[in-house]
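Entry type: protein chain
Record version: 2
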Amino acid sequence: MFLHILPLALGAAVSPALLGASLELLARFGRRGVRMLLLYLLGAALVVASVVAISLVLPRKPAAGGSSIISDIVDIALAALLLVIAGVLIFRRPGPAGASAKPTPKVYPQSKWAGVGVLGLGVFMMVTNFSTLVLLLAGSHEVTSASVDPVIRGLGYGLLAVGALAPILLPLVWMLVRPAAATRDLGRINDAITRHGRAIGIVVSLATAAYLLAPGFGLF
């Protein structure tokens, strides 16, 4: 099971938009940056938990040798979404260097509602991060369908959640470990992901779509 969901978790972790918003929050709120990043993480985590909950009501994949038309339709639908995402990435013209792929809604640091705004920002950024959501749902469907102990299943969900939330968890941990150099180091990482994120997104989307479609063609 873990070999199946690890690539999905890694693919879900590639999100320049989520990471860029995390760095912007740290820069904008200064000493309050870590607290605001925690609220941002909470908002994104609510969406991740909702996706995992949705996977619990989807038809489970059959055991080896079995078949389920409804489950196959779910896989085909997820694969089709990934192919659409890959097509958009392939044919979309890259923006100017340094331009953000997705504008981050403004949050005003001095407002007494800043915390609520950051929480909502976490929800918004994750809800509009379609490739991560599809990979998360595909992985959660794999975990839900696996014939494993509840503890192992929980670890599987946890791995996928950590992958989806990695662009927020990484800056948070970095700020706690190396606060003086966190913004500079994470900025370099974000620049690298921004440069290569399109190619990585295409490869991950196509590979995952092929993985979801393979059982229907009797490949495994």
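Comment: Residues 2-217 form one domain.
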